[in-house]
Amino acid sequence: MVDQKHDGDGAGGGRATVARIYDYLLGGKQNFPADREAARQLLQVVPDAANVALSNRLFLRRVVRVLAEAGITQFLDLGSGIPTQGNVHEIAQAINPATRVLYVDIDPVAVVASNEILMGSPGCRAIEGDFTRPTQIVGALDDSDLATVIDLDQPTALLYCSVLQQVPDEQIDAVIAPIRDRLAPGSAMVISHLSTTVTEAYGATGVAKAKNVYRTQAATEIIPRTSDQLAALFGDLTLLPPGLVSLTHWRAELSEPDPYAIAGTSSPMLGGVATR
Ligand SMILES: C[S@@+](CC[C@H](N)C(=O)[O-])C[C@H]1O[C@@H](n2cnc3c(N)ncnc32)[C@H](O)[C@@H]1O
């Protein structure tokens, strides 16, 4: 994937990052002037960008609830982002307090903020890591004290929410397969992803402009994918009903309606949950 340049000194003088642009869109405070400027440019071409982010978070909360209620007690959240309202451990531990969550993100701001809110949550951790290096993540889980958080021999929920659209086609199978194929029986894999329907929503020019904002402001390529491309990423796992659908329509009855449902439209992101 394209290397992201981070604001290593935390002083706010560096380049925007996807994590902090997303935080800003969700109304968070863990962002700097470069992130706010990137978000401002994005909102000029995609006026509902904040709704895309909110709809994704509502989907994530519904998914975690469904999986926790199904008995999964381990969540591996790759590209977990900066904490917001209704984080994975909060939703899952409300159902089963013994649930363990490992948050992994490449952005140090996300990792520090996650560990701060995890102080009262034994069994949960946040680490800096690159999910495009899956063998390193599997190796860390197998060989370190992280195995007390995620034991891959036990049913695990693997979350790829709004992250895989940053991985180029030529890498995506190699990024996903080592962890997906390691999942034990009873595990689940979750994907939410920008779909090619964005072109219908914003036009080819709008999409090109939005991609250009991420490329120039955050050194990140955004790659929308079709439903067939996304279905293939689940490998031999079986999609749960309702399948791979607009996030707006995935078990919508389980949360407040997202902004698209209220407007009678659909999020341009697709999501699905598959189990082994
Ligand atoms: C749009 S946010 C999504 C956050 C969260 N998953 C959600 O759905 O609310 C994308 C996140 O992926 C992280 N990310 C991007 N590339 C990554 C990589 N190679 N390894 C780990 N995290 C990555 C970013 O730092 C950012 O926090």
TrEMBL record:
<dbReference type="Pfam" id="PF04672">
    <property type="entry name" value="Methyltransf_19"/>
</dbReference>
<keyword id="KW-0808">Transferase</keyword>
<dbReference type="InterPro" id="IPR029063">
    <property type="entry name" value="SAM-dependent_MTases_sf"/>
</dbReference>
<dbReference type="GO" id="GO:0032259">
    <property type="term" value="P:methylation"/>
</dbReference>
<dbReference type="InterPro" id="IPR006764">
    <property type="entry name" value="SAM_dep_MeTrfase_SAV2177_type"/>
</dbReference>
<protein>
    <submittedName>
        <fullName>SAM-dependent methyltransferase</fullName>
    </submittedName>
</protein>
<keyword id="KW-0489">Methyltransferase</keyword>
<dbReference type="GO" id="GO:0008168">
    <property type="term" value="F:methyltransferase activity"/>
</dbReference>
